[in-house]
């Protein structure tokens, strides 16, 4: 690894820097840089250019967001990339690898799973504030870093193709799962309606709102949003839906004991309060009607993707054990069913929240 060249590029003193591996991310490789001369710490990342085909677009987006926030909301805490003396923030090695550096947010921490309602509330609030603060930015200026990332129509078409052309034995094996997913295609039709009729406004959207992409300080107080690689134009249902998909159940998508997959109403309420209160003057009344739909949208899409990959012999996600993607597909289908069963209760929570904010 060309650490010396990277540090030199970013004007960091090689002799005073200690580098150690950090985190367990699956996409980008990460290290910490500890400066022994002034105790400053940084995060060094190698951008996975096989996933993100144009790392320069990510840098462009981050700089665009930073410039806008510095001008319009200078007090908002935004973690941007380190620049060298020439104003460059992306080092490209001789091997064509891309590296960037962020300041390490001192006294902060992240969590991998939602452990309580405050964490859910604070995370939802941070993602909402992120969108709210950037409401005035011309979203057309943002680059699309992952094409069709949350294009449900495309995922459904890929699923239909896999049913016709995939592994015949696996298609027969999963006939009941296929039938269920086909029966829920109204979720796709609703997405098409949103796109065709501009029901929901295109905004700056994070697209990856798992709890580990929020930093906390103190007693689970939200600090800031991180991991901005997937920030691009999108619909708010992507952010809310991803929170529902990854926060509502204590069991994640890898859980093989489906009895552990439940919907926690108290976590839903925390997400709703954390997100809708900062966004109450941003989202239109019509847009707010898609709040619970957001969960259906994201969970259904992930179920489609896992089962599609299983029918295609695990060519996209790969597998850690036999039938891994089948288990993950079933897991998400169970989660979707639990969400559908809970919808009346969840809708009541949203209505009570809307009524309480209307009286303020």
Task: Supply database-style keywords.
360 residues, alpha+beta, 3-stranded antiparallel sheet, 46% helix
Would you kindly provide a written description of the structure presented here, covering whatever features stand out?
This protein has 360 residues and is an alpha+beta fold. It has helices at residues 3-9, 55-72, 117-133, 152-165, 168-173, 175-183, 186-196, 236-247, 265-279, 285-288, 293-311, 324-358; strands spanning 17-21, 29-35, 41-47, 91-92, 98-103, 108-109, 203-205, 214-217, 221-225, 232-234. The strands form three sheets. A five-stranded antiparallel beta sheet has the order 1-2-3-5-4, covered by helices on one side. The chain has a three-stranded antiparallel beta sheet with strand order 6-8-9. The chain has a two-stranded antiparallel ribbon with strand order 7-10. Strand 1 and strand 2 (29-35) form a beta hairpin. Helix 8 packs across helix 11 (293-311). The relative contact order is 0.12. The model has no long low-confidence stretch (mean pLDDT 95).
């Amino acid at each position: 690894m060309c650490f010396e060249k990277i540090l030199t590029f970013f004007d960091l003193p090689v002799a005073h820097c200690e580098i150690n591996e950090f985190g367990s991310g699956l996409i980008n490789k990460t290290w910490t840089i500890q400066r022994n001369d002034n105790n400053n710490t940084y995060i060094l990342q190698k951008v996975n250019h096989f996933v993100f085909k144009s790392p320069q677009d990510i840098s462009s987006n981050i700089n665009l967001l930073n410039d806008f926030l510095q001008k319009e909301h200078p007090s908002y805490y935004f973690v941007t990339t380190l620049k060298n003396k020439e104003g460059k923030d992306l080092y490209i090695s001789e091997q064509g690898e891309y590296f960037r550096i962020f300041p390490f947010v001192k006294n902060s921490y992240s969590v991998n799973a939602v452990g309580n309602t405050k964490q859910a509330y604070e995370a939802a609030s941070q993602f909402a504030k992120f969108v709210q603060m950037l409401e005035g930015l011309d979203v057309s200026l943002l680059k699309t870093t992952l094409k069709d990332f949350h294009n449900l129509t495309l995922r459904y078409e890929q699923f239909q193709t896999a049913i016709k052309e995939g592994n015949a034995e696996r298609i027969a094996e999963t006939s009941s799962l296929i039938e269920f997913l086909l029966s829920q295609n109204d979720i796709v039709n609703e997405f098409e309606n949103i796109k065709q009729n501009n029901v929901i406004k295109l905004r700056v959207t994070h697209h990856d709102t798992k709890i580990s992409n929020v930093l906390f300080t103190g007693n689970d107080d939200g600090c800031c949003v991180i991991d901005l690689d997937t920030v691009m134009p999108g619909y708010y249902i992507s952010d809310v839906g991803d929170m529902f998909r990854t926060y509502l159940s204590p069991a994640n998508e890898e859980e093989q004991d489906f009895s552990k997959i439940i919907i926690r109403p108290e976590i839903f309420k925390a997400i709703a309060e954390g997100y809708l209160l900062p966004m109450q003057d941003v989202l239109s009344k019509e847009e707010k009607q898609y709040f619970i739909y957001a969960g259906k949208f994201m969970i259904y899409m992930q179920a489609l993707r896992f089962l599609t990959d299983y029918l295609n012999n695990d060519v996209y996600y790969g597998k850690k054990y036999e039938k891994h993607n089948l288990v993950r597909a079933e897991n998400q289908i169970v989660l979707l069913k639990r969400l559908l069963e809970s919808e009346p209760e969840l809708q009541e929570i949203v209505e009570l929240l809307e009524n309480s904010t209307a009286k303020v």
